[in-house]
Design goal:
Elements: E1 3-12, H1 18-35, E2 43-50, H2 60-65, E3 73-77, E4 90-99, E5 109-110
Parallel strand pairs: 1-5, 2-3
Antiparallel strand pairs: 1-4, 2-4
Length: about 120
């Protein structure tokens, strides 16, 4: 029986360029879908955040470029907390999707320099 779940992902960029935002966001979302056996049709919504130093492109543009235009998406700024993670050029996502997998079988996607955010999670 399918149920609604939330999946997390994050990645970092080498530089704040449109190409990097598009490529790394596409990679992160593709990894998240693949690890969890999901199709675009299973996705309900996507909430992206980016650190203040990401200004070249909206992460949601990568999803639209991949042909997923019918999923509600929102882009926002990550909180700039003093003493926080301190990871520059970071894009994060919370994806809501339907799946039959139990919670313990879900796999989040923390790529590149963002892996340190949740090194406690299995890949």
């Amino acid at each position: 029986m399918s149920r609604l779940v939330a999946l997390r992902g994050a990645t970092t960029l080498d530089a704040d360029t449109r190409e990097q935002v598009l490529a790394r966001t596409t990679e992160m979302l593709g990894c998240l879908l693949e690890r969890n056996g999901l199709r675009a049709a299973d996705v309900v919504s996507l909430l992206f955040t980016a650190t203040d130093d990401v200004r070249a492109e909206f992460p949601a543009a990568a999803v639209r470029a991949a042909g997923i235009a019918d999923v509600p998406m929102l882009c926002a700024r990550e909180l700039g907390i003093e003493g926080g993670s301190g990871i520059p050029l970071c894009v994060r996502v919370m994806a809501h999707a339907y799946t039959d997998r139990p919670r313990e079988a879900l796999r989040h996607a923390y790529l590149h320099g963002a892996r340190q955010l949740r090194s406690d999670l299995p890949e």
